[in-house]
Design goal:
single chain; alpha/beta; FAD/NAD(P)-binding domain; Elongation Factor Tu (Ef-tu), domain 3; 2 domains; 5-stranded parallel β-sheet; 16 strands; binds flavin-adenine dinucleotide
Length: about 475
């Protein structure tokens, strides 16, 4: 039973994690009652240890809090502007962590739990929701996270189709395009094939000679790896092996797999045939990000950066995200959701948090914040514009609901993989937006990149404030 006296009927939020707690808070703060259904207390997950809302299952860090030149720091700042409960509880429970925002995990979860329990428009029900929300709930948000309970996951799968729900991610590293050395690499599709929507020059190719290839294989095999947690199992299937597992199967395996050189001619040196080639494929519509094709990996982050920078042309690569392979329930959002996170096949039903294909505590909470605001506006008969793509909110939302490029050349394979917020998701600055500061002699490379980040961050915060002010 709802404890509110508001004239609106309630919105149901399923899952009281980072996203669901934030969604519930935003809805209630908009004057609309909420019923928040959380199963912990009745049924646990493999990773959560408590019954507290917004429990952090692993690290206690919300990553960089630098809102002037770090994309996740900008997202923090935008969430604060939007009255985020998650950020308020994090700020109140900070522990020293240099430039990062880290929290006392119990204090943080207790603060969120107390705020939700104390809100007059929120009712918490401890129960497992075993299927899609009944039609009579009319407006609902599913925020059940990477470890969504199996019965609900199965119902989602039935509604969206078998290929639209994944239980593991297989993330290949993603590189900022501008950090790839095009004096070494070249654009070309294998055999110059012009696929649907392609040009014959859709991939960036990094050539290796035999010596470079052998050194690379040795480094891959020797690199430090992360293991799977016992409850995750080992989700290897032959179409999706970690790159280092392929390398361990035989020195030549990669040369006959994702690194095969066939059908590619080095534009800088056509006479010399590459011994192996690493291909990168455009990852977002803006063209600012490229992913390393077939390079899903369990190498530790430090090892990934070191080993992948051995690839010719990637010596100075900056990674928007590094690779991984985890147990992770998420939907194929770019095809299933509209721009306000509503399931196209079920009006009134939204998704939020990591199940939408964002990744991390902060990103999940921010998508919860947006889903909550969209749902509350719908209940009140109002229209809420989507946040501009120039904001961190908008850049992440846009990636999830459409900005990601769906691969046409690998039939049967899903190309949408979870993403955290990064500057590669933001539209480029207008020409002339950054100019050489007075008195500065050198203004290229790192200096210019830093100025670009600062200008992108400043634009985001200003556009976010304007969006929030209507
Ligand atoms: C093992 C592991 C380690 C991680 N480490 C990190 C890390 O170090 N840093 C980081 O930023 N991110 C990490 N993540 C990702 C992070 O946990 C998520 O980004 C974040 O918690 C997602 O928020 P969410 O609200 O979408 O899901 P969650 O926070 O998981 O919340 C989902 C909630 O839904 C509930 N629920 C599920 N099914 C049902 C149901 N049928 N009915 C009712 N309730 C249900 C769950 O009990 C849970 O409380 C990790 C994830 C895992 C699994």
């Amino acid at each position: 039973m709802s404890k509110d006296t508001s004239s609106h009927s309630p919105i149901h939020v399923i899952g009281g994690g980072l996203a669901g707690s934030e969604a519930a808070w935003q809805i209630a703060e908009a004057g609309v009652p909420v019923v928040l259904h959380e199963m912990r207390g009745v049924r646990g997950t493999d990773a959560h240890k408590t019954d507290g809302l917004a429990e952090l299952v692993c690290s206690n860090s919300f990553r960089s809090d630098d809102a002037t030149s770090n994309a996740v720091g900008v997202l923090h700042a935008e969430m604060r502007l939007a009255g985020s409960l998650i950020m308020k509880a994090a700020d109140a429970n900070q522990v020293p962590a240099g430039g990062a925002l880290a929290v006392d995990r119990d204090g943080f979860s207790d603060a969120v739990t107390a705020a939700i329990a104390g809100h007059p428009l929120i009712t918490v029900v401890r129960e497992e929701v075993c299927g899609l929300p009944p039609r009579e709930w009319d407006l609902a948000v599913i925020a059940t996270g990477p470890l969504t309970a199996p019965n609900l996951a199965e119902s989602i799968r039935q509604e969206t189709g078998a290929d639209a729900l994944a239980f593991f991610d297989a993330i290949a590293p993603i590189v900022y395009t501008e950090t790839i050395d095009m004096d070494i690499c070249w654009y070309q599709s294998r055999y110059d094939k012009v696929g649907p929507g392609g040009t014959g020059k859709d991939y960036i190719n990094c050539p290796m000679n035999e010596e470079q290839y052998n050194a690379f294989i040795d480094a891959l095999v020797a690199g430090d790896k992360t293991g799977f947690k016992e409850w995750e199992g080992t989700p290897y299937f032959d179409g999706c092996l970690p790159i280092e597992v392929m390398a361990e199967r035989g020195r030549e395996t990669l040369r006959y797999g994702p690194m095969k050189p066939m059908g590619l001619t080095n534009a800088h040196n056509p006479a010399v045939k590459a011994y192996a080639v690493v291909q990168l494929r455009q990852d977002n519509a803006l063209g600012t990000l490229y992913n390393m094709v077939g390079f899903q990996t369990k190498l530790k982050y430090g090892a990934q950066a070191e080993v992948f920078r051995m690839i010719p042309g990637l010596e100075n690569a900056e990674f928007a995200r590094l690779g991984g392979l985890h147990r992770n329930t998420y939907i194929n959002s770019p095809t299933l959701l509209d721009g306000t996170l509503t399931l196209k096949s079920r009006p009134g039903l939204r998704f939020a948090g990591q199940i939408t294909g964002c990744e991390g505590y902060v990103e999940s909470a921010s998508i919860g914040l947006l889903a909550g605001r969209f749902a509350a506006a719908e209940r009140k008969g109002e229209t809420l514009a989507v946040p501009p793509a120039t904001t961190a909110f908008g850049a992440l939302l846009n990636h999830i609901t459409g900005g990601h490029i769906v691969s046409d050349d690998e039939p049967g394979k899903r190309s949408f993989q979870p993403m955290n917020v990064n500057f590669g998701l933001f539209p480029p600055l207008d020409p002339g937006a950054i100019t050489k500061p007075e008195g500065v002699k050198r203004f290229r490379g790192k200096e210019k990149a830093a100025a670009k980040k600062q200008a992108t961050a400043a634009r985001a915060l200003s556009d976010c404030a304007a969006w929030l002010n209507g």
